[in-house]
Amino acid sequence: MVLQREFFQRDTVIVAKDLLGKKLIRKIGNRKCSGIIIETEAYRASDDPASHAGIRKTKRNRIMFEQIGRAYVYFTYGMYHCLNVVARNKKFNAGAVLIRGIYPQLGIDIMSKLRNNTKIQNLTNGPGKLTQALDITLQENGDDLTKYSSLYITNGIKIKKIHKKPRIGISRGTDKEWNFSIDPTDYF
DNA sequence: GACACGATTGGCT
DNA sequence: GCCAATCGTGTCC
After folding, report:
1. Is the pLDDT of residue A141 over 90?
2. DSSP string covering A103-120, please?
3. Measuring from the CA of residue A97 to each C1', which nucleotide is nearest?
4. What pLDDT is stored for residue A128 in this prediction?
5. What is the CA A169 to C1' B11 distance in angstroms?
6. pLDDT tens per residue across span A35-82
7. Any residues with CB less than 8 A from the CB of A62 and at least 6 apart, and which?
8. Which of A183, A96, A63, A80 lies closest to A129, judged by CA?
9. With CB atoms counted within 10 Å of each terminal CB, which end of chain A scores lower, N or C?
10. Gap from A134 CA to C4 C1', in Å?
11. Calpha distance A175→A180 (Å, rounded)
12. Which positions ≥6 away from A123 have C-beta within 8 Å?
């Protein structure tokens, strides 16, 4: 069952936690690739100095201010893409959840080729890695993830324990513990 | 118009 | 553990 729009109409931090264990699905040609979401981070609005949306709406971050349930994809470090899902409640005018890691399920052969045949444990365990494995680029920026199409999220597995940490790779907003993850060895 | 830097990764020490 | 790769974007002059 694909996640409905209402799922994303809650506090960005809550949605980040609740996305753990859900299934990310990407169709490439007539094949399906998928994985269980195991790590996420919340990035909110003007209350969050680490967020792209922390200052104002710009050309790059505009999707974060638009319809919830859509993909916010950005290009970084001159070579990698990162995938977010737009989510926020009515208190904020922007927000998104960064998908930082998935546990591969379907289409491992396709993903391996896109990742130059790396080891399975290195396939999709990072934000730049999973977009490469799933062929996600700026082409997918703004795509609606609540519809069955070439990129969407469905219900997944039941979660036991959620780990909470400060977010990775940021220099501001380090006081907020908005990185959430589950331990794959608990499930797979 | 210029310039510093980043929600990263992989390779080397 | 450290650092280069690589370039679009945002901010500042």
Report:
1. yes
2. EE-S-HHHHHHHTTS--G
3. B7
4. 98
5. 19
6. 999 999 999 999 999 999 999 999 999 999 999 999 999 999 999 999
7. none
8. A80
9. N
10. 26
11. 14
12. A104, A108, A111, A112, A115, A129, A133
